[in-house]
């Protein structure tokens, strides 16, 4: 009964998006073929529901409480939001409510950037949130680093403004492409105020021996909905090194599909999350070892307070023939409260025999002995607790080699603690 | 003894080292017409002279089954099962007077001899007195297709108050117990196959251990699927009252058949305060031939309820057979301090598919569970561990340790791990680790350099890989299981 009701509410929300598309269609940039195909699929299958295995722990029901409209043309300079961007001395591309804002951006040199429409080729067609993005996407940045260029650091910022009762939904579609031997550090920040829905898609291509460091900071409004779907293809000898910090959003899902498609490719999908209140955070990753001799590494740390709920779904697939694969995955959660809940589903799917794959998962509270150790040395209870939680997260964060990026992450952690103490 | 061994070798030779136990026994069968409907259920019920409440329960289960859909989430692929093309009842024809040992069909005894039911057991079946100081006795409840034909040791057991009999008999002799516990752990509408089983189950074992009794011997059931196109739907119910203990062994082999046969059993365990149930299985049903033709579909629901404080249920399984396995022996840890254990070895070769694991549901305080799963895939098989550890909000101090290791032999097979870890209590400590690897060249080289053949070396390494599970098996089973492992992997190492 209740399941049926939820589905109905979700269907109504899906229908609202489809209606919006019918109204906007003529004004949306680019070819409409992909948009129409996505709309057809959405009409047939709706939004992800609780009965789908990939969505068993994350229910979209809360989004049905709101009517989301396309965002109004941004007018203000949003100084409050800009001030919250990490202090990193690097060129930046700023999107406000899903639209590129040249006036707030400082485009990089040596990197080709194109904006004004959804970027990159179609990826993950059939994934429902990607289809929603394809259907309604208006803007995005296409970032291309040429062969052999070390492009330094670039900030990609998504700001969302609070328009009171008018809740915006935006679907940015970005693409990052690194040529052979190219290098880039992309710092990807999302923050905002109020209730909105940010449903982004990012397609990444890392060519032979290229190296992309991707630092993601999800600091969205505590009332917002944030869905980020990322597709990465890593060619021979390429490396995709990502770290995702999740602090914001009432309901968020971070879904990463990483394909190691050439030999000796490397992917790191590390993450740290701190959630409290009624927050729900989902980190889902699918790493496909398609070529032999590839390596993937994943450490995901989650701290849950109050009635927060954490979800981790991590799948490592090793295709037939992907011999000498080295896959490692560790997922640890710390529950700080009796109402917190953690659901983990690490998963291995292996079709090659000469592989080394392992995963580990732990869920528990702060170790009483460690706490006792600190207390016996005169550290106050709260301080000792904070110390241990920081140490727990440090294991993931210390792996970030980009110093300014790591410092920015740590600042976010401190801010989280500050809010906790307040 | 030697005759048994010879005939086994002969069979092995005929099937080219394939399924050792592929023979079928020609005896008269009493069969229900093909298909499934309410009349068939009434027929099964009347054949067994069942009370009305049980018939009603069956019909209700059938009605529930009709509304359900066959689950498709398991990582197995098989042709759609035509549930109307099966016989739902097949019993060896009895001449007169049931249950007297003398009247056991000699054909059956021969079958069991071939199956390797311990010779001593056959002696008991033949009425030979045991010699002084022999090893611990084992009581056998043998299930031949759908009917339990003979139960040994019942007198000895009865003296200590233990009830061990076919469930069809228990329905008549101990209706209050059966009615109280049947379906209390696995409700009729629990899942598709459990509902089907509840509607059409024909027989199985019933064990009741009264308060404070330690069952004086290990209890054992051998299942066989014999007739063509019969589904086997056993129902096992084991209830252990406060402070009781029982160790139950279940062994399975089935004759070689071309078509896929369906097996959908339900096993329910109930452990009250301080009670312990140890349930061990060796499953060696016909896995189909080297091309994946034939074999048993094994869709089993096994679940134990640790109802009382400090109760303990321990599942140990060695799964080498069946074309498709779908099996998740589970523990519901209700009582404070209850303990659940799951030790599993699953071997798949050729085209076998196994999707197996466990569920540990922590409800009571200070409950703990241990899961050790060893999967071995060879040939073109797929082997999946699927498990759930769920800690509910009130399970203070719950503890779980899970270890899933997979071993791949050959580059055409698959090994998969799908654990679900759900915690709603911060004081719960859950640990899960999984590894996948192949037999290391170093280990192989070491064994080979000491004169072992490639196959012996692999056998030894595999046995070592499974040691943590095999050591949980009762002695007789452990020996059989080690042999099974070696036999299952024969020819898969190149």
Overall description:
The complex is a heterodimer of chains A (422) and B (494). Chain A has 422 residues and is an alpha/beta fold. Chain A has two domains: 2-365, no CATH class; 366-422, no CATH class. Chain A has helices at residues 2-24, 33-45, 79-83, 128-136, 368-376, 381-397, 403-421, and strands at 68-69, 92-96, 99-100, 112-114, 142-145, 150-160, 167-170, 173-178, 183-192, 196-206, 211-219, 225-234, 239-246, 251-260, 266-275, 280-289, 295-304, 309-318, 326-335, 341-350, 356-364. In chain A, strands 1, 4, 5, 7, 8, 10, 12, 14, 16, 18 and 20 form an eleven-stranded mixed β-sheet that branches. A ten-stranded mixed β-sheet of chain A has the order 3-2-6-9-11-13-15-17-19-21, with helices on one face. In chain A, strand 2 (92-96) and strand 3 form a beta hairpin. Chain A is globular. The model of chain A is unreliable at 1-6 (pLDDT under 50). By secondary structure, chain B is of the alpha/beta class. Chain B has one domain. Chain B contains 13 helices and 24 strands. Chain B has helices spanning 2-14, 38-47, 52-66, 106-115, 119-125, 154-159, 167-173, 175-181, 192-200, 441-449, 454-465, 467-470, 475-489, and strands at residues 29-31, 90-92, 138-144, 147-151, 163-166, 205-209, 218-224, 235-240, 245-253, 260-263, 266-271, 276-284, 295-306, 312-319, 324-327, 330-333, 339-348, 353-356, 359-362, 368-378, 382-391, 399-409, 414-423, 429-438. In chain B, the strands form three sheets. Chain B has a ten-stranded mixed β-sheet with strand order 4-3-7-9-12-14-17-20-22-24. Chain B is globular and about 65 Å long. Chain B starts with a helix and ends in a 5-residue tail after the last helix. Chains A and B meet through strand 20 and strand 21 of A and strand 22, strand 23 and strand 24 of B.
């Amino acid at each position: 009964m209740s399941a049926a009701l939820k589905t109905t509410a979700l269907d109504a929300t899906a229908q609202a998006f489809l209606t919006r598309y019918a109204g906007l269609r003529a004004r949306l940039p680019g070819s409409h073929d992909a948009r129409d195909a996505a709309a057809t699929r959405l009409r047939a299958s709706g939004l992800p529901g609780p009965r789908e295995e990939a969505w068993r722990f994350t229910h979209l029901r809360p989004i049905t409480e709101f009517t989301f409209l396309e965002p109004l043309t941004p007018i203000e300079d949003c100084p409050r939001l800009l001030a919250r961007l990490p202090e990193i001395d690097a060129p930046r591309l700023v999107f406000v409510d899903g639209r590129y804002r040249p006036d707030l951006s400082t485009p990089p040199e040596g990197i080709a950037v194109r904006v004004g429409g959804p970027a990159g080729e179609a990826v993950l067609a059939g994934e429902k949130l990607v289809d929603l993005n394809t259907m309604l996407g208006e803007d995005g940045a296409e970032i291309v680093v040429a062969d052999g260029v070390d492009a330094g650091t670039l900030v990609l910022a998504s700001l969302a403004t609070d328009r009171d009762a008018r809740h915006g939904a935006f679907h940015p579609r970005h693409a990052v492409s690194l040529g052979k031997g190219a290098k880039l550090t992309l710092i990807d920040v999302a923050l905002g105020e109020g209730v909105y829905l940010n449903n982004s898609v990012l397609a990444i291509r890392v060519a032979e021996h290229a190296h992309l460091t991707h630092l993601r900071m999800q600091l969205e409004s505590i009332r917002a909905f944030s869905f980020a779907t990322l597709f990465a293809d890593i060619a021979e000898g390429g490396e995709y090194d990502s770290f995702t910090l999740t602090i914001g959003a009432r309901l968020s899902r971070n879904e990463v599909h990483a394909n190691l498609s050439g030999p000796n490719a490397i992917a790191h999908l590390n993450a740290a999350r701190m959630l409290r209140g009624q927050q729900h955070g989902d980190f889902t990753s699918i790493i496909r070892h398609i070529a032999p001799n590839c390596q993937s590494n994943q450490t995901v740390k989650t701290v849950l307070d109050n009635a927060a709920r954490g979800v981790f779904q991590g799948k490592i697939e090793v295709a037939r023939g992907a011999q000498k694969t080295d896959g490692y995955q560790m997922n640890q959660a710390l529950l700080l409260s009796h109402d917190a809940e953690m659901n983990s589903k690490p998963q291995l799917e292996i079709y090659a025999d000469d592989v080394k794959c392992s995963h580990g998962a732990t869920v528990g509270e702060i170790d009483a002995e460690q706490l006792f150790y600190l207390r016996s040395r005169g550290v106050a209870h709260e301080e000792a607790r904070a110390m241990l939680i920081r140490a727990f997260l440090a294991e993931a964060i210390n792996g970030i080699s980009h110093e300014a990026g790591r410092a920015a992450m740590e600042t976010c952690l401190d801010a989280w603690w500050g809010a906790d103490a307040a | 003894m030697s005759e048994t061994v010879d005939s086994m070798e002969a069979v092995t030779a005929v099937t080219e080292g394939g399924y050792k136990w592929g023979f079928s026994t020609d005896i008269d069968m009493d069969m229900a017409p093909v298909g499934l409907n309410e009349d068939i259920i009434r027929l099964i019920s009347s054949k067994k002279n069942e009370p009305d409440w049980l018939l009603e329960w069956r019909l209700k289960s059938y009605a529930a089954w009709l509304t359900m859909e066959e689950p498709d989430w398991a990582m197995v692929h098989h042709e759609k099962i035509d549930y109307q093309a099966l016989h739902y009842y097949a019993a060896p024809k009895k001449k007169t007077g049931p249950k007297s040992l003398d009247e056991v069909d000699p054909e059956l005894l021969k079958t069991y001899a071939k199956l390797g039911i311990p010779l001593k057991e056959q002696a008991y079946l033949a009425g030979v007195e045991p010699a002084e100081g022999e090893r611990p006795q084992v009581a056998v409840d043998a299930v031949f297709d759908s009917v339990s034909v003979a139960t040994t040791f019942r007198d000895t057991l009865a003296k200590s108050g233990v009830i061990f009999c076919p469930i069809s008999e228990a329905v008549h002799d101990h209706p209050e117990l059966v009615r109280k516990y049947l379906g209390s752990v696995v409700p009729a509408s629990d899942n598709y196959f459990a509902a089907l089983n509840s509607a059409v189950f024909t027989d199985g074992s019933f064990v009741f251990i009264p308060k404070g009794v330690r069952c004086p011997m290990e209890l054992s059931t051998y299942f066989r699927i014999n007739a063509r196109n019969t589904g086997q739907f056993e129902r096992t119910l084991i209830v252990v009252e406060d402070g009781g203990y029982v160790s139950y062994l279940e062994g399975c082999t089935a004759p070689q058949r071309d078509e896929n046969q369906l097996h959908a059993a339900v096993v329910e365990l109930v452990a009250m305060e301080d009670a312990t149930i140890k349930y061990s299985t060796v499953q060696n049903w016909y896995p189909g031939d080297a091309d994946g033709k034939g074999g048993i579909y094994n869709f089993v629901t096994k679940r134990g309820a640790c109802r009382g404080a400090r109760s303990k249920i321990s599942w140990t399984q060695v799964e080498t057979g069946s074309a498709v396995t779908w099996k998740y022996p589970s523990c519901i840890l209700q009582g404070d301090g209850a303990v659940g254990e799951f030790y599993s070895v699953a071997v798949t070769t050729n085209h076998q598919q196994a999707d197996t694991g466990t569920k540990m549901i922590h409800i009571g305080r200070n409950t703990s569970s241990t899961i050790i799963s060893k999967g071995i895939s060879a040939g073109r098989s797929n082997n999946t561990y699927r498990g759930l550890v769920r800690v509910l909000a009130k399970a203070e101090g719950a503890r779980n340790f899970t270890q899933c290791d997979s071993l791949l032999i050959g580059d055409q097979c698959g090994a998969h791990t799908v654990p679900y870890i759900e915690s709603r209590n911060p004081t719960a400590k859950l640990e899960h680790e999984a590894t996948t690897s192949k037999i290391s060249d170093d280990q192989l080289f070491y064994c080979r350099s000491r004169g072992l053949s490639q196959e012996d070396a692999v056998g030894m390494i595999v046995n070592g890989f499974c040691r943590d599970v095999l050591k949980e098996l009762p002695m007789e089973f452990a020996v059989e299981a080690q042999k099974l492992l070696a036999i299952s992997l024969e020819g898969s190492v190149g």
